[in-house]
Amino acid sequence: MTADTSSGAANGTVAGGVAGAGTYAPAPGAAPVLRMIAAQTAFETRLLLRNGEQLLLTVIIPSLLLVLFSTVDIVDTGADEAVDFLAPGVLALAVMSTAFTGQAIATGFERRYGVLKRLAVSPLPRWALMTAKTLSVLVTEVLQIALLTVIALALGWSPHGGPLAVVLLLVLGTAAFSGLGLLMAGTLRAEATLAAANLVFLLLLVGGGVIVPLDRFPDAAHSVLALLPISALSDGLRDVLQQGAGVPWGGLGVLAGWAVLGLGAAAAFFRWE
């Protein structure tokens, strides 16, 4: 009799609790936006670091270029030590390879294979996805810059200038290239993005002041090339790290303009499928 009563009381409590309280754990609904961005950033960073082709583009090629052109007299850089000219340019190249080329190709194929289509039906907003991708690029760039700095120092690099100006240039450069990469990936087919991103990478490597000084080009071409984001970033880093200049406001202005243009256009025209 006692057991039956206890059992009935327990069952009544459970049933009454479910019907009355109506609570669930975990509570249904979207997570806070900052938590979604953090989770997506961690996921995007793991994808970048696991991709062998991305590592070739973002780590091996810049490292080889730095070592080759610093030790072999191929291009007259006009500096006493070639590495003093090349190191800032290769740092800019590393930013472009990760934020623009690598991200454009990876995102373009994510779009083709339906990954972005599935994300589109999740609570993650479009701008939050772009923010997460940009943050993952920044994390990868920290590792790139640390490696390239060690290599450059081993080659005899003597950097100057303040770290604040360098950080501002790198962050704005990342935002500019990330916006352009996402714009390309979100509007073109994956195959077209693959071809265009690699072509732009090669063209800017040659004509963006990374290895060949811009003053080697004709004056008319020099004026146009100086407005490119890779030129603004490489020359700005060179002004600070080689010449010991203060904050290069001109280069920062060019990068800020490209960042606003690229990220704004990507937010407006990015297609999930």
What is the strand and helix layout of this fold?
Blueprint: H1 2-21, H2 33-50, H3 52-71, H4 82-112, H5 115-120, H6 126-154, H7 163-187, H8 190-207, H9 219-225, H10 229-241, H11 249-269
What would you say about this model in short?
The protein has 273 residues and is an all-alpha fold. It has one domain (32-269). Helix content is 76%, strand content 0%.
Radius of gyration: 25 Å
The total count of helices amounts to: 11
Which oligomerization state do the chains in this entry correspond to?
Answer: single chain
Shape: elongated
Low-confidence stretches: 1-20
Mean pLDDT: 85
Counting helices, strands and paired strands, the structural category is mainly alpha
Fraction of residues in β-strands: under 5%
Order of helices and strands: HHHHHHHHHHH
Q: Kindly state the percentage of residues in helix.
A: over 70%
Distance between the termini: 65 Å
Main pleated-sheet profile = none
Query: How many strand units?
Result: 0
* Count of discrete structural domains: 1
What are the salient characteristics of this protein?
single chain; mainly alpha; 273 residues; disordered N terminus
